[in-house]
Each structure stands twice: as structure tokens, then as C-alpha cells.
Amino acid sequence: MAKTTGNSKVKKKPNADKIIAIYMDYVLENEKTPKSVYKFAKDNEMTEQDFYQYFGSFDGLRKTIWDKFFENSLQVMQKSKEYAGFSNREKLLTFFYTFFEVLTANRSYVLYTLKEHEMPIKNLEQLKTLRKRMKNYAKDLIQEGNKDKNLKLFKQNEMVFSEGVWVQFLFLLKFWMDDNSAAFESTDVAIEKSVNTVFDLFDNTPLERVVDFGKFLWKERMA
């Protein structure tokens, strides 16, 4: 509630989450990004100083939104008592399931912001911070798994695995964007098959899952 002094009201300054919510709503309502911080702040009853207290630019704000998606996913997973006891494979599956649930809850914004520019590389610039966070998450999973392996021969390469997880995410993101199935069931299947494939490759097990995954992709593409 706003504080009052006599007859005058002192407005509560918006925090980072509030500014993000206002920005996302602006983009969806106007189907465009704001032209300037000054106009955006003025139209939403805040000052430029309120905005710059948390973000250096709209580009910084957009990167933070993806970072928030990541943080929200981690918080949801870590609330589960079972998560800590999951295998690395199960943890990565849970992460992708949860992350895409968060994206689905914000699908209209995500689709707009990832298709805003004609050049795909321009749209992906906002994912730079997310890329670091996701790769670090993947590295932590592998480090945890490597602790139980005495021989260096059987230890998995952290850099290769983390980069693989990021490439996997980009594939799943594009798949989800194009997914027209009810409740995005096809994306759930793609997540399961792709995660199992990645771990099977790293564990040097037979490649039946790779073939299975390839058949799935072909079937979805032709559908």
C-alpha cells in the first residue's frame, strides 16, 4: 500500500519484477517494443531513474526476462523433495519439462520476441545470459556424475556436454515454437527422446535411441 503524508500520496517505486511485467504487457498490447526508456517510463508512471536502477537498457531487460525464466524453473524443481535424489538424466529431463512449462505460460511474449527481427541471430542475442546459466547447470550435473567415476577414461567432458545441452535446448525451443499439438505433447516427447539420446551417446550405449529419435523427428516433420 502506498505511504501517505498528510493529504499527499507517495507512490511505491516499481521493482524489477514489476517493470518486467509492465514491459511484457506493453509488447503484447502494442505488438512492438518501446522506442525509448523515457517514453516507456512516462507512459507507465515511473521515472527513467526507476528503470535504470535495475536495467541498463531494453536489451538488458530482455536478457533478464530469460534469466528469470531460468530462475523460476530452478525454484520449482528445488521445491520437490524428490529432485535431489534424481539421476543426472532425470534432473535434465525435469529441467527441460519445467523450463518449457514456464515458456508456455509466457508463450505469446516468447513467440513475439523470438520472431521480432527478420534475422534469427538478432532474435537470439537476448539468450546470451541464459546460455551461460544453462551451460553452468549442465556442467554441475556432469561434475556431480564424474565424482563417482574413478577412472578418467569414464569421466564425461564437461565442456562438450554443456555445449551439447545448449544446442539441444535451441533445437527444442524451435520445435516448441512450431508445435501445434494439444498441450504441446509433441514437445514433451521431443524432450524425453532428445535427453535420452544425449545421455546414451555420452554413456556409449547402443544407439537404438538415436534411431528412434530420428524417426520421431521425421514423423513430426512430415505430419
TrEMBL record:
Signal peptide: none annotated. It comes from the Bacteria. InterPro entries: Tet_transcr_reg_TetR-rel_C_sf (IPR036271), TetR_C_23 (IPR041673). It holds the Pfam family TetR_C_23. Residues 91-217 form the Tetracyclin repressor-like C-terminal domain. This is TetR family transcriptional regulator C-terminal domain-containing protein.
